[in-house]
Amino acid sequence: MRLDVENLACIRGERRIFSDLSFALGPGEALLVTGRNGAGKSTLLDLLAGWLTPAAGAVRVFEAGDRTLPESLHYVGHRDALKSALTARENLEFARDFLGSPALSPPDALEAVGLAHAAALPVAYLSAGQRRRIAIARLLVAHRPLWLLDEPTAALDTASQETLRKMMEQHREGGGLVIATTHSPLPLRDAKEIRIERPTPAERPA
Ligand SMILES: Nc1ncnc2c1ncn2[C@@H]1O[C@H](COP(=O)(O)OP(=O)(O)OP(=O)(O)O)[C@@H](O)[C@H]1O
Predict the structure, then answer these.
(1) What atom in ligand 1 is closest to the CA of residue 35?
(2) Are strands 177-181 and 2-12 parallel, antiparallel or unpaired?
(3) Which of 58, 63, 85, 141 is 20 to 30 A (C-alpha) from 9?
């Protein structure tokens, strides 16, 4: 799959968040999105996911078969989007059934993030880092070529950050694409990088 983003602009409320944002990603490539708090990193992911409409510009997808862009991506956001009353395993079963294109089994995905022992626990009982690891395990239970990850290492300890880094590299080796926002260094091989700068007050619409 290929992604081509051209001269993208976004306005939220009365504010211009960014404009003229362009990049292209091909199979196996990764993009790190940096910028200060409130610069618009999550907003960019929301636009790519199709939840927001750009004020200008275009997002084009190629070589994705008959799938639309929303059907071609995984999104792991700030909120882990887990169902608190379901167990870790049930959450992954739900994700696999909902997303389609099953890949690793839920037990194997839990094993991959070091949470096999928590399979039968309701996620409400888990720590913030453990919940984040289950949200990340969702990436493994259904195959989707584009991973959109919003500060994926937040709440993760060093070992889990390394597990996630390896998962991202493996996904890329299989031809997958990764776009991750981050405030801390994420050592991905040959990753592209864009920094979103806040427009000055003069550039913002009144
Ligand atoms: N629903 C909304 N309506 C209007 N403005 C919004 C809305 N949601 C977010 N914003 C604004 O859009 C701007 C960009 O927010 P965004 O969450 O994309 O920033 P970010 O770069 O991801 O920040 P952080 O590093 O803190 O996560 C912020 O000024 C925010 O207040």
Answers:
(1) 21
(2) unpaired
(3) 63
Q: Could you tell me the distance, in angstroms and rounded to a whole number, from the CA of residue 201 to the centre of ligand 1?
A: 16
pTM as predicted:
0.94
Contact predicate 188/30, CB 8 Å: yes
Domains of the chain: which residue ranges?
A: 2-84+145-203
Tokens of residue 115, six digits: 């949470």
- The DSSP code for 79 is S
Q: Which of 41, 151, 204 to mutate to test the pocket of ligand 1 (most atoms within 8 A of CB)?
A: 41
Q: Are 21 and 44 in contact (CB under 8 A)?
A: yes
Average pLDDT of the residues of the chain: 93
Ligand 1 environment, Cβ below 6 A? 12-13, 17, 35, 37-43
As for the ipTM of the complex, it is 0.96
Phi (first) and psi of residue 137, to 5 degrees = -65, -25
pLDDT digit string, tens, across residues 172-189: 999 999 999 999 888 999
